[in-house]
Amino acid sequence: MATKRPPDRRPVAKKPAAKRPVAKARFRRRLGGAVAATVVAVGVLYVVAFPAQTLWTQRTATTKAEAEFSDLHAQRVSAKHKADLLTTPAQIEKLAREIYGFQHPGDEVYNVLPGPTEPTGLPTTWPFTGVERALSGT
Q: Could you read off the pLDDT of 59-84 as tens digits, one per residue?
């Protein structure tokens, strides 16, 4: 059997100059990878996230505009219906009598006054004296 040689006890000269370029190269590769990943992430934001936000804003504005359009369309239909009613002589006469108080010659018009109001039931002490009479109109 072969005998083992004792390990060499001499100090080994370190080669800092040889290892340093390897460490710098590894650091530069990692830094380059991080910068590339950041550039890709920013690119994805510009391509996907910002247009998606704009699309969402436009979709909300479109929904509001469609709701306003449907309301305006309903108002337009209602106004057209009222305008069609105003072309009939019977409707014109009805509105003239109700709104403006017009009448045919020889018609008798009666104005009906409201009835007396119920007493409010306030106490007869100082701050309320005469208030009930003023409110009831008697």
A: 999 999 999 999 999 999 999 999 99
Residue 138 lies in a domain: no
Residue-number span of the structural domain to which 62 is assigned:
18-104
- Rounded to an integer, what distance in angstroms lies between the CA atom of residue 27 and that of residue 67? 58
Residue 49 maps to a domain: yes
State the amino acid at position 45 in one-letter form: L
- Is there a domain that residue 6 lies in? no
The reply to whether 72 falls in a domain is yes
% of the chain residues with pLDDT over 70: 75
Assess contact for 128 and 122: CB atoms under 8 A.
yes
| pTM recorded for the entire structure | 0.40
Report the alpha-carbon distance of residue 33 to residue 15 in Å, rounded.
28
From the number of C-beta atoms within 10 Å of its C-beta (0-12, 13-18, 19+), residue 122 rates as: middle
The conformation of residue 2, written as its DSSP 8-state character, comes to P
CB 109 within 8 A of CB 103: yes
Written as one letter, the residue type at 43 is G
